[in-house]
Design brief:
Elements (H helix, E strand, L loop, with lengths): L4 E3 L1 H6 L15 E5 L7 H11 L5 E6 L4 H7 L4 E4 L17 E4 L7 H13 L4 E3 L1 H9 L11 E3 L3 H8 L5 H15 L1 E5 L5 E4 L2 E5 L11 H14 L4 H23 L6 H16 L1
Parallel strand pairs: 1-10, 2-3, 2-5, 3-4, 5-6, 6-7, 7-8
Antiparallel strand pairs: 8-9, 9-10
Helix pairs in contact: 2-8, 5-6, 8-9, 8-10, 9-10
Bound molecules: ligand NAX, adenosine-5'-diphosphate (ADP) and magnesium ion.
């Protein structure tokens, strides 16, 4: 591991923006979570709930019709807009006044969804967190990186990153390739792993929290929701990524005394967010 800046409690606190006493849900920002396809609506439920539990004032989910009853039942606090199509996203239409959008989880990579993403990116100016299948679609259309707002946050795991930048022989080569893209398009990379690295132009930060309990389905979907929730609360994108990565991992550190590494699931990250926020500010 290179000599990267360590993301510890002191650094996370420096980048964290607490909720003020006279806040109301309109001042806490409105986030949109776009994703889901038949059989993977759970990823949007996880992401949207994590977004709310990170302090966003309002959260709307944009999903295919098949997910409507599921998400309204699973997370009643989340508002829902459905695509015209049943099983996957074919267009992204909304007229919401938003502070942040998180997209890609469970989205699938159907051709119609490629087209929907292209049209969305051409008209969007809202700060973005891009994950999972939206990253996989971008990897197949690399020229679309030009369409991203400045300081968009990408959250690939190593396999998603390989699809985006090609294979690498060493960590140094991986970081050099990521920094090239980061500089070219003003993009923030959250390279999820053990540990997670955050690369933004010349800066490389290394997270100090988390453990193997996080090697469980949906933990990345939850991270996207946390970062999007902090972004919706007017954190700068880099700050939202840094604090989000720190808190996400901290929930695993704090929970394993009870769950062990095996019985920790993505929902436990969401459950542990309260304790993680409190210990950040203690
Ligand atoms: N409950 C749900 O609805 C869930 C939906 N999910 C969605 O399923 C879709 C596919 O996501 P996946 O990540 O599973 O599929 P991917 O095809 O992107 O990744 C799976 C492949 O990548 C490899 N891989 C995964 N993480 C890696 C890492 N950290 N380092 C190296 N190799 C790694 C695996 O070995 C496997 O070969 C995404 O849209 C995701 O959001 C998943 O998050 C799981 C839960
Ligand atoms: N062994 C590990 N140690 C620390 N963090 C881990 C470990 N395994 C996975 N993670 C974290 O779990 C998350 C996995 O993300 P991802 O693969 O996108 O999950 P999913 O797509 O299933 O939601 C990342 O934040 C990653 O850093
Ligand atoms: Mg993922």
């Amino acid at each position: 591991m290179g000599n990267f800046i360590q993301i510890d409690k002191e650094i996370a606190l420096r980048h964290f923006r607490p909720i003020e006493k006279f806040a109301h849900k309109g001042s806490q920002g409105h986030a949109l979570i776009i994703g889901g396809s038949y059989g993977k609506i759970g990823s949007v439920c996880l992401s949207a709930k994590a977004c709310l539990k990170s302090g966003a004032g309002l959260v709307t989910a944009y999903i295919p019709k098949c997910g409507y009853t599921i998400i309204q039942t699973a997370v009643p606090e989340v508002m829902v807009i459905t695509d015209d199509y049943q099983d996957f996203i074919t267009s992204v239409d909304h007229d919401l006044n938003l502070q942040a959008i998180g997209l890609g989880m469970g989205m699938g990579t159907q051709q119609e969804t490629h087209q929907a993403l292209f049209l969305f990116l051409n008209m969007n100016t809202v700060p973005l967190v891009i994950d999972a299948d939206a990253l996989n679609i971008l990897s197949l259309n690399r020229e679309w990186l030009e369409l991203l707002p400045k300081q968009t946050v990408l959250t690939p795991h190593k396999k998603e990153l390989e699809r985006l930048i090609g294979a690498w022989q060493s960590e140094e080569e991986m970081i050099a390739k990521v920094q090239e893209l980061s500089n070219a398009h003003d993009i923030i990379f959250v390279i999820k792993g053990a540990p997670t690295l955050i690369v933004y132009k010349e800066q490389v930060y290394q997270n100090t929290t988390g453990n193997q309990a996080l090697a469980t389905a949906g933990s990345g979907d939850v991270l996207t929701g946390i970062i999007t929730g902090l972004l919706a609360q007017y954190h700068a994108p880099f700050d939202a990524a840094l604090v989000g990565v720190y808190l996400h991992g901290l929930t695993a550190n704090q929970a394993v005394e009870e769950t062990g590494f095996n019985s920790f699931i993505a929902s436990d990250i969401i459950k542990g967010l309260g304790k993680a926020f409190l210990s950040l500010q203690a």
